Amino acid sequence: MDRVTHSFWTDRFPQALSRFSPMQFHRMLPTTHWLVWIGVLLMVAGCGPARAADTEATLRNEIARIAQEFNADQDVARARAALEELDVANPRQYLMLQTEEMIAANSDPALTASLVKLTDALNIQSTVIRTYAAQQGLAPPTPTFALEAIAVAPTLPSVATPAPTALPSAAADVASAASLTTPAAVALLDLPTPTAQNSAPAAPQGKATGLINVRSGPGTEFAAVATLAADETVELTGKTPAGDWWQVKAADGATGWVFGQLLETTGDVAAVAVAADIPTPPPASALVADAAPATPPAAEPTAAPAGEPTAAPAPAGSPSDQPYFKLVASRMWSKAENGDCRGQHLLRINVIDANGVRINGVRLKGIYTGEILVTGSQGKGDGVIEYDLYGTGEGFVVIQNDDGREAASDRAEGFTTQSRDISQDVLIAGGYCSNASDCQVFYDSWGCNGHHSWEATFQRNY
Predict the structure, then answer these.
(1) If we measure between CA atoms, which residue out of 261, 256, 262 comes closest to residue 238?
(2) b/e for 180-195, b at 16 or more Cβ within 10 A?
(3) CA distance linking residue 431 with residue 94, whole number of Å
(4) Residues in contact with 172: Cβ distance below 8 Å, sequence separation at least 6, in sequence order
(5) Across the beta sheet with 408-409, what order do the strands follow?
């Protein structure tokens, strides 16, 4: 019981009783008896243990309120602060799950649109949200069009109209129903018939976000067979089971595979089926031969295809060579390593030299966020950076050597926390499921969504 309530009952209640005479009090005794009991119950309720922080319904209402307020004021900082105040372990993940559930329920399009816009602004969209946003025109924003006012023709004097000689049956019915007796009405019948709008969904397409490679298979281990210029549009003809790579067909007829995060998709992308002819990765020996030119690159190419590793030099070099960092390892942590489905969601990147010695002071840059991290500066160990992953994740490239020189590197990316975006092979290797049917159950139940961690290693050329 708080101090104010206690003061009321100890100070004022006796004073109130003193105003009544003994006879009045005797007459009121039955009523007073019940009032006292009610007061006692209220006191017990007020002084009892605190209620649980927030019920599920309250959290859902709060998420809806935050999304609707953001839709009205577009204040990202305010929305982020409001989310952080929610009593949940991971507010961003909770927002993502609520948005996906609203999309699945299809019950409130206006609220769903507000939730989708908020997740987009906070960069925590999932494949489900991206697909819905593209289908509903929520990303990018749908352009609006102003309708011009139509001038009203002046009223004409009514004149007798001769019987029509050969009006089409549809026009004759319209004339009869509207009792058309003026030249303006007759002119109305001569207007061209509006063409019915095609209600069929648009064909799924993708637009390149930069100069990117088209590969012979879904992975950087496959050879590049073509390139797409920035804003070049391709037809989406298939996808991987995880939905992280698109099978595409260019305007010139070239076909291949493009990493999904490098394309802005439009149209009915949900209708794109898993490709039936997904190639298997080439042997490891072929990868080494394909990735090792005779000489290292002079510098990071400014026009190198986005989303793909640049040519890697031979593993041994000289300190006088241009620093180049090759991605030599990349894996998802196992379920046990990550602390089960309520474990971590981080990306750890190790940076070593040609002899395997960890290097501090190397600067890496986020591919999508642009965030700069320096090895050894976070207290996570020598030659290490760690990044907190959310949603579809992040990737990194090396931009500066430990001696301050500009550096070039492969791209370390594809690190997602979304269970449905991770292939079955990777999930099985990590102990999250045991076979195809078991993995499908894992997908259908949203798996360990939001709680996957990854590790990668860059090795310098000397």
Answers:
(1) 256
(2) beeeeeeeebeeeeee
(3) 25
(4) 164
(5) 384-388, 346-352, 454-460, 324-332, 408-409
The SS3 assignment for 327 reads strand
Pairing outcome for strands 324-332 and 408-409: parallel
Q: What DSSP string runs through 372-433?
A: EEETTSSSS-TTEEEEE--TT-EEEEEEE-TTS-B-EE--EEEE---GGGS-HHHHHHTTS-
Give the residue with greater pLDDT, 256 vs 27: 256
Range list of β-strands (E), 174-323: 205-208, 212-215, 224-228, 233-239, 245-249, 255-259, 263-266
- Residue 445 backbone zone (phi > 0: left; psi -120 to 50: alpha; other: beta): alpha
Q: How many Å apart are CA 93 and CA 449, to the nearest integer?
A: 8
- Other Cβ atoms closer than 10 A to 56: 7
Q: Which amino acid would we find at residue 355?
A: N
Q: What whole-number distance in Å separates Cα of residue 324 and Cα of residue 401? A: 9
- 438 contacts 444 by C-beta, under 8 angstroms: no
Q: How many CA within 13 A on the CB side of residue 77?
A: 0
pLDDT digits (tens, 9 = 90+) for 396-449: 999 999 999 999 999 999 899 888 889 888 899 889 999 988 899 898 888 888
- Nearest 10 degrees: CA dihedral of 239, 243, 245, 251? 50
Closest CA to 409 of 398, 424, 394: 398
Answer whether 0.85 is exceeded by the pTM: no
- Copy the structure tokens of residue 341: 């489905």
Total residues belonging to the chain: 462
What confidence tens digit (pLDDT) does each residue in 193-240 have? 555 555 567 889 999 887 788 889 998 778 878 888 888 999 999 999
Structure token digits, residue 158: 């009514």
- Residue whose entry in the numeric block shows the structure tokens 């590049």: 224
Tell how far CA 272 is from the center of its chain: 19
Q: CA 374, 379, 381, 387 torsion: positive or negative? A: negative
What's the CA angle centered on 84, arms 79 and 87, to 5 degrees? 125
pLDDT in tens, 18-57: 555 555 545 555 555 556 555 555 554 444 433 444 467 8
Alpha helices in 190-341 (DSSP H): 284-291
Specify burial of residue 268 (Cβ count, 10 A radius: 0-12, 13-18, 19+).
middle
